Predict the 3D structure of the following.
Amino acid sequence: MDNAFQWSASYSVKVEEMDDQHKKLFEIIRELYTAMRAGHGKDVMGEVLRRLVDYTVLHFKAEEKLMEKNGYPALAAHRAEHKALTDKVVTYKKDFDSGTAAMSLELMTFLQDWLQSHIKNIDQKYGDFMNEAGVH
Ligand code: FEO
């Protein structure tokens, strides 16, 4: 798991701004994992989780705006994926804040899957389209 949250070129979506935002997401998730392993308390974990939710929302909005601006045909399906992921992470944060969920390896696995499968199966599909539209 220790190497799981490292961005590498295999995650590139061929659009620099989006790659930078994905790197930032990896960074926050790594921070969460490190804090969890170090046994940090609820306050620290809650703060990192809040930043993860905020940055996720910001990133999804920016990515959707980019797709919208360039007339990306699969925008609606991509937006639905974003909504499902946001709902999951927001629900988890609520459960964490109310004490009904703990920071766990299960959550870390979900976040890892999210990064790997969403970026690789969904995000990477827009790379060539954006490049052809002159966005790099
Ligand atoms: Fe980069 Fe569709 O999230």
Q: What stands out?
A: The longest helix spans residues 42-69.
